[in-house]
Every structure is written in C-alpha cells, then in structure tokens.
Amino acid sequence: MMFSTLEQTITDLNIDGITLSRKRILDQLKDYIQSQIDNEQKVNLNFICTHNSRRSHLSQSWAQAIGSFYGINNLQCYSGGTEATALFPEVTEALKDAGFQVEKLSQDENPVYSIRYNETDHPIIGFSKKFNAAFNVQQQFAAIMTCSSADQGCPLILGASARIPITYEDPKIADGTDRQAAAYKERSLQIASELKYVFSEIKL
Fold first, then answer.
1. For tag attachment on the chain, is the N or C end more exposed, with fewer CB atoms within 10 Å?
2. What is the pTM of this model?
3. How far apart are CA 198 and CA 66, in angstroms?
4. By the 8 A CB rule, do 192 and 98 touch?
C-alpha cells in the first residue's frame, strides 16, 4: 500500500495547466509505455541528465511511484548521468516533503539512499552513476533526457529502444539562496504533474 501522504500528493497533482505543446512532448513517453504494455513487454525507463544529481533522480522516483499508483506493475525506473557526482541532498528533502520515505544508507562522497513509496515494494536505490553503469538496465529501455546538455552531449545511448527528450530547468540555479527549498519543491511537483499526465493516459 502506498504511503498515505504520498498518495494524497499524487491525487492532488494538477495536470490541467500542462500546455498542448508540452503534452505533445510527453506523449512520446506515453506512447512508448503504452506500446510496451500492449506488447506485454516490461517497461524500462532510464532518466538521464548530466550529473545524475537532481532532475533525473526526481524523475526516476516520481515515475516509479506514479506508475505504481496507476497499477502499472511491469515497470522499472532507473537514472544516470553522463558523469557521476552525488545525489544533491535537497532532492531528498523535496521527496520527503511529498511523502516518500528516504533513508541515507552511506556517508561517503556519493552516498546511497533508500527511497520508498510504499510498504511492500523494494525501495528505489538512489545514488549518482553513469547512465550505462552496471546497476542500470542495458537493453530495451527508453532513455529520457531530462536536461538539454545531456541530450546534446550524449549522441548515442547504446541499448536504448527509444530516446525521448523531456527537459527541465535545473533547480541548481537556486542553490545557496533563500529560494533553494522552494525551487526544488517546484521542480519536483512539476515533474510529478507531468508524469501523472503520462501515466493517467495509459490503458491497461
């Protein structure tokens, strides 16, 4: 069962403000997921940005949770970067604020986090890694490019069966300011709302 606070957050997400032009971009992901389901194939999604520190982790976590919310069981979400750095702590704060349960499992320069969205499923394991790291899916997945620099700097994603650019402004621009927490929450909920639109359109 999904954590009640997170379930309420997803229920309350407003998708009415998503523009038609943005929906056309998101529909590429929707069509990929629908095709996989129609063909009784596993849905593997790898969200990719430059440092695998912010947007890709938010996208991975929300996609896994919202997919579960809509009963899409054959779904596995991953994230990676064109280089590895560390998951930025404010990302975990934004996820906790939305109702995820987050636990820091290690204390090194690239810490590992357990990110749970319900009581029963295995947690998302959050840490910074390259998109083609052994921890990630290697074949038959959609590569979702969450930042333009990764999209431009990664001309070839080996093993991907689809490449979909769904880019977001980096909340890093607010780091160290009095808007930091608000900026991460805004980006988190924007990503969540757009993924709610995608998964709410899927027919099982």
1. N
2. 0.97
3. 9
4. yes
Residue pair 108/86 in contact (Cβ under 8 Å)? The answer is no
Q: Which residues contact 12 (CB under 8 A, 6 or more apart)?
A: none
Q: How many residues does the chain have?
A: 204
Q: CB 183: neighbour CB atoms within 10 A?
A: 19
- Cα 38 to Cα 19, 34, 59, 138, 166: the distances in Å are 27, 6, 23, 22, 23
27, two tokens: 């529909």
Query: What's the token pair of residue 183?
Result: 């900026």
Q: 118-151, pLDDT tens digit by residue?
A: 999 999 999 999 999 999 999 999 999 999 877 7
Contact 139, 42 (CB under 8 A): no
Say which residues have a Cβ less than 8 Å from residue 39's Cβ, sequence separation at least 6: none
**Which tokens hold the place of 163?**
């490449």
Question: Which amino acid type is present at position 7?
Answer: E
Band of residue 156 on the pLDDT scale cut at 50, 70, 90:
confident
Contacts of 8 (CB under 8 A, 6+ apart): 99
Could you read off the pLDDT of 172-200 as tens digits, one per residue? 999 999 999 999 999 999 999 999 999 99
Cα–Cα separations (whole angstroms), residue 97 to 9, 82, 109, 153, 188: 10, 28, 24, 32, 10
Q: Cα separation of 17 and 196, whole Å?
A: 12
